[in-house]
Amino acid sequence: MLYGHSGRLKDREQSSLLSKVGFRSAESAAVLEFEEVALEAQKELLGKKTKAPIDAYRFLERLPLIK
After folding, report:
1. What gap in Å lies between CA 54 and CA 63, rounded to an integer?
2. How far is CA 65 from the centre of its chain?
3. CA torsion, points 27, 32, 34, 36, in degrees to nearest 10?
4. Which residues contact 44 (CB under 8 A, 6 or more apart)?
5. What is the pTM of this model?
6. Cα 38-9-3 angle, rounded to 5 deg
């Protein structure tokens, strides 16, 4: 939810907001990297390796929830 609210801000403004809210640097880095991780997962799910539903499910099982 926090990512959705800060989506219109620039990277520097997002990191400033997260530090003011009280996030530590590792936590704020995870929030800021969320979009990149999601796009990588999306590309993998659209690829040939995960065309079968069972393969896509296995890929999603291996995805870490938090980096």
Report:
1. 14
2. 9
3. -140
4. 50, 59
5. 0.63
6. 40
Specify the pLDDT at position 67: 55
Structural domain boundaries in the chain: 1-32, 38-67
Distance of CA 59 to the CA centre of its chain: 16
Distance CA 7, CA 66 (A): 19
Q: Which of 16, 12, 60, 58 is nearest to 38 (CA)?
A: 60
**Can you list the residues of the chain whose pLDDT is less than 70?**
1-7, 66-67
**CB-based burial, 18-45: b 16+ in 10 Å, e otherwise:** beeeebeeeebeebeeeeeeeeeeeeee
